[in-house]
Amino acid sequence: MSQAVETNLSAAASGAENARNFLRQYALHIALVVLIILSALISPSFLSGGNVSNMLLQAAPLGIVVIGQAFVILVRGLDLSVASVMATAAVAATSFNGQDTDALLIFVVAIGIGLITGLVNGLLVAKRNVSPFLATLATMIVLQGMRSAWTQGAPSGNVPPFYRILGSDSIYGVPYNLVITGVLAVFFSVLLAKTTFGRKVYITGGNPVTARLLGINADWITITCYVISGGLAALAGLILSGFVGIVDNWVGRGFEIDSIVAAVMGGVALSGGRGTIAGGLVGAAILVVVFNSVLQIGMPIQMQIIIKGLVIVIAAAFYVRRAA
Amino acid sequence: MLTISNLSKSFPGVKALSGMQLDVRAGEIHALVGENGAGKSTLTKIIAGVYQPDEGQIEYDGEITHWPSPGAAKAAGVHVIYQEFVLFPHMTVAENIFIGNERRGLLGMVDHGQTRKDAAELLHRLGVEIDPDKRVVELSVADQQMVEIAKAMVHKVRLLILDEPTAVISGHEVELLFQRLQALRADGVAIIYISHRLEEIFEICDRVTVLKDGQFVASRAIADVTRDQLVALMVGRDMSELFPPKATAASGAVVLQAKGVSAAGRVRNASLTLRAGEVTALAGMVGAGRTELALAIFGGLPMTAGSVEIGGKSHSQMSPALSIREGIGLLTEDRKGQGLAMLLDVAANITAADLQTVSRNGFLDRARENEIAREEIASYQIACRGPQNPVVTMSGGNQQKVLVSRWARTCRRVLILDEPTRGVDVGAKAEIYRIMRELAAKGIAVLMISSELPEVVGMADRVVVMREGTISGELTGADITEEQIVRLATQSLAA
User: What is the pTM assigned to this prediction?
Assistant: First the structure.
């Protein structure tokens, strides 16, 4: 009987509907490929070795932030503090004597700042019921102030060579930072898709009330997601400071919006409980390609901002259509 | 007043209605019944102008009409009150009543004074005591329903359609609603009344039309039809077949004991004993504290006093994790809000209470999970595309089966089901009753919370009745009758 029901349904789903499902599932990948082809056609230098490796270098820090952001959005949150965490981590990188002997210390301090920020965000959201928007906005501002106070206006030190290499050098043509992003992406994808922790993230985000009634410590799950986001943002900040070389108080500016847009465009539902790391990373790749082609085509950099706005509009409209 | 003939409507892949007919007269309450998916909502939406029929005609007031939009239907005096109210919670009662129809004064600005006055008059005519200045969010659900009816009266309602109006109210509130409907009927309003609760239909309706699988089955005067005949028309089988036979063996050992439990200010000093192999019903009015007692026992609400004894240990505080470990399951009343993770698939929802079984060292074993899901889909006949079907796309009855299967797998001692058959069709109901009885036969203590008396009488080996947060009595065997239950559920505490 149930066998019959199942086959009937799958028979109805065949043909046109399968094609539609395929399109829906891979719409983003197709969009990315189309974008790359278009960009290559318009600007021959787009696919040049130099430009490709430049794009990959840029994509890596965004990718790392998007991974964390995806965790937070999956539990119905939003992390606006990521850019501030990045800048603070970058400032930490220049706050010692600029030698490799301090590399480990810098790592501990920077990641510590990220984890603590995430912990505060998570505690505010989970235990005090503060809206994620307000909680992470507040920590963003507090970090900003602390940074300015610490640097007395502008940071002056140097980024140790270790982080410069990490941020801008390659091994066999593959940038180090992309390798790091890849390793992190695999690790966190496995965590999300293949472990009970990941399943609990989906259940908590999908329905927090249900999660509690299933004996899941939903508060702990939520806090962990914010901690992951904070830690990854700090790491991205270190890598980005190595890429840029010079640090100001605003390293990573705009990453909060970019990471949210990338995640949502990649199918991570703002209502929580749906989405994957891979999807978020494809979203990030689309953003990077779009921004890069604007420059390649020779449009002024201000166009990037306008186009970013348009991409958000399109992503939002796309998201709404998917949710319906 | 309204005559529908030969109406058909298809949606991509489904024929929702075909050859439908309906004849509603002014000054009557006309029941529309049928299982879920019989086509009641589609028919309602066509009458309300939301959908356009593919074929057939609608005759209203002796003229053939068609309403191209809900606005056109409303202008003709057709008003629908859906199960989910269309009210703005933070606006006042008066503002809600005249929404889209604001009383205007100088320069076309909204005249708040006039709005309030007119609203007060309407509410008075309706015979209800609601302060027009109150915000809707502060009202009881029953009062919100009255505001919806008042809204209909603004539009000089001539045909009022109510979709499951008593699903959200109870007892005295139902009586009040019925009085208002009778007053409207006396004014010559035609009322279409959709409900799953047959006893109400016999109480208030004049005629009934039965739908099945999108087709017209029969129209009868209520006086000419018995309850069993009506059910037979709806499902094509006998009512008595709905309930499996009760337990015959003597009741088993005590499995769970709640002693003097108080919680959430809604439960006071309630004690309850559950025995293996028994189906115990927790009856009473909506709001009597039944759900809160169940949640307190399960650990979803903190106990402010009392204890729960299970597995030889007494706990002054339960938690969901502890309950699941001790083999208690809780199927909540609110399927979507407290039960399912709607975006997750069938497999994930089935195994959600039992991740240990489908994981090793914290890593999920997807193959094992899918295997379990496939077994459950087969044994409960859950209609879906397979383990990876997101539950959000499934029907209510099938979603409920997913939840039943989740808890049936994990409950080793006690299964609590809160209104397990609400909003599911008769076929799925029979299925759920059968499963409950099977679990009891396996030695599980089943506690069923239900507001439907025939269900309580048909299923329970023992009935515990609650009233205003306390246990007001217990019935067994031949004492389990609808009259006894109502008496215990409503008698004053002093008596």
Answer: 0.77
